[in-house]
Amino acid sequence: MPATSGSVANGNAMGRNQVRDDEEGDPTVKVQTIDELHSLQKKKSAPSTPKSSQPTSFFNISEEERNKQQLESISASLASLTRESGPKVVKGDPAARKFEASRVAHVPAHIRTPTIAVSDSSLKFTHVLYNLSPAELYEQAIKYEKGSFVTSTGALATLSGAKTGRCPRDKRVVKDEATENELWWGKGSPNIEMDEHSFMVNRERAVDYLNSLDKVFVNDQFLNWDPENRIKVRIVSARAYHSLFMHNMCIRPTQQELENFGTPDFTIYNAGQFPCNRYTHYMTSSTSIDLNLGRKEMVILGTQYAGEMKKGLFSLMHYLMPKRQILSLHSGCNMGKGGDVALFFGLSGTGKTTLSTDHNRYLIGDDEHCWSESGVSNIEGGCYAKCIDLSKENEPDIWNAIKFGTVLENVVFDEHFREVDYCDKSVTENTRAAYPIEYIPNVKLPCVGPHPKNVILLACDAFGVLPPVSKLSLSQTMYHFISGYTALVAGTEEGIKEPQATFSACFGAAFIMLHPTKYAAMLAEKMKNHGATGWLVNTGWSGGSYGCGSRIKLSYTRKIIDAIHSGSLMNVEYKKTEIFGLEIPTEVQGVPSEILNPENTWSDKQAYKETLKKLAGLFKNNFETFTNHQIGENNQLTQEILAAGPILDDA
Questions:
Q1: Which of 353, 354, 372, 475 is labelled catalytic?
Q2: For residues 579 and 613, what is the distance between their CA atoms, to the nearest angstrom?
Q3: Distance from C-alpha of 281 to C-alpha of 288, rounded to nearest angstrom
Q4: Contact 194, 290 (CB under 8 A)
Q5: Fewer Cβ close by (within 10 Å): the C or N end of the chain?
Q6: Cis peptide before 27, with omega less than 30 degrees from 0?
Q7: 166 a catalytic residue
Q8: In this model, does residue 245 exceed pLDDT 60?
């Protein structure tokens, strides 16, 4: 019995030893509080930027001093112009940590108007969430923003509120002594004027709103992959959704670039959750998107649609780049393995995204580009793709890009499995995905390329009278570039069965700042200097208008684009069409020759001629807006452009 007891005792002792052996090392974590335990979970690193080992003089200063300088810059950005100082700002989430005095900045502001009494907001700290990583922004969105969810593929689904698209009628540009003569104003222009005072009222409203919040998101990023001509932008916003959107859409700085960022060239104040005052002069609704080129600032009130930030910066580039003799373009761009670059222009529904995305070519960008003396460069660091009716079969690159880090706007998903239904239009037809451009497998990084070899203008002609492909002269390229034509088919619920022509100058009238002829003249000059060829490609109807004819097969259009890329279309015979005077090839490999001349595809030749004249008349009516604008020496360039348009005998 004693032996047995001893055995049991030894067994118990061994059991206790075995437990200790299973948990090697110290049995408890040496911390005093649960907060300390949580602090061990996260290793310290630079915010949302890759590490860099390249030394610079800036690294000689302490981390504390760097933080102080960054916060002083942010405080200056958030400064009310009616007070002597900017807000007290501190890095970090107010819900996660208490502020430290060393991370607080409070800097003087430039006084423009008399100082007023100190308000409650000046007594509080504004917590700055600075250049957060996508993972950190996910946490902020899901925890604090209603309507934010992680989908089955890892993307962040979110809602943009009541506005699910841009509000061009609520966009304003400050008209001052400089911009009065520089910008395009009046009929046809997207630029609706406002004065400096009204802008400052809205700016003050936005800044006061942002300063009243417990925390704001600040992104310091770049525009333009060309390092010689990039622009530093700062985006101050109230939502993690907006911060992640801009993280994806702008160029993301390295750690070294971020630490040397300094003062931004342009600042966006996104207070979209807060309305503008309708009694403010020039306001027509509770929404206002205001651009002040003199102050290099943009204010957003009354709309949470993230695309306003993207396109506001695009408008900025349309103003800044031409001053440097750089052409800003609303286009797609890709490059062949031999280094040949093609630009694709086209309005919605023309196939710009589909045709510029080619697995045999490198993607430079899908939407916004610059053409400088050194070549082409993408303005953005991401893609903003339409998602309506998206399928893996038709758009595999976009489908596969919708993963962790991607923002999905206004989509509908299964409440349990979180699988997105891309065909569901319950919220809006304008569903979108914003993702870093690196998510595209055949992207060219950095997103730059040599001078374009081909400039392709896409039109979905629902009238069915434009050829599938035409080679353009320089003046014809300018004419059709300024026109920016496509045709839309109205919904049957409106009782309209005929196609409707739509024109958008430079294929992006909503974003251009200068007169369209200035961009066209720059395009022609660069094409001439670098030997680029212009093409007009019709992705619309053949054999009759919409309802009678049929849409040109995508496979045929791809063969045409392939022939343009290969250069084979430069070595075939051409015939000139009547009225529009377009040069059409007599043969394209892989495309039936009979469809190359649209007249051949119409059984009713008289109907073809009448429809052709009708479309020509629409072109001429649209172009009347531009006829009085003189460009070139002795107005020569204007006359060349006008002569390149359609000619009607009875005109």
A1: 353
A2: 8
A3: 11
A4: yes
A5: N
A6: no
A7: yes
A8: yes
How many angstroms separate the CA atoms of 392 and 136, rounded? 29
Cα angle at 350 between 348 and 355, to 5 degrees?
Answer: 115
Provide the pLDDT for residue 286: 86
Could you read off the pLDDT of 180-223 as tens digits, one per residue?
999 999 988 999 999 999 999 999 999 999 999 999 999 999 99
367 is catalytic: yes
Q: Among this protein's residues, is 352 annotated catalytic?
A: yes
Residue 501 β-bridge partners: 487
Task: Let me know: does 183 contact 514? Beta carbons within 8 Å.
Answer: yes
Q: Is 502 a catalytic residue?
A: no
Handedness of CA 466, 471, 473, 477 (dihedral sign): positive
Residue tagged active-site, from 170, 367, 397, 461: 367
Is residue 495 a contact partner of residue 340, using CB atoms and an 8 Å limit? Answer: no
CATH class of segment(s) 452-643: alpha beta
The one-letter code for the residue type at 307 is G
**CA pair distance 553, 556, nearest whole angstrom:** 5
- 438, two tokens: 């690196």
Pick the catalytic residue from 348, 555, 603, 627: 348
Task: Identify whether 625 is a catalytic site residue.
Answer: no
Residue 627 CB-density burial (10 A; 0-12 exposed, 13-18 middle, 19+ buried) = exposed
Nearest one of 603, 524, 532 to 565, comparing CA atoms: 532
One-letter amino acid at 86 equals G
Q: Which two tokens stand for residue 286?
A: 């509770």
pLDDT of 572-588, one tens digit each? 999 999 999 999 999 99
* Active-site residue, selected from the candidate residues 203, 369, 432, 526: 432
Sort strands 448-449 and 452-459 into parallel, antiparallel or unpaired: unpaired
Rounded CA-CA distance 543/464 in Å is 7
- Span(s) in the chain for CATH 3.90.228.20: 452-643
Length of the chain: 651
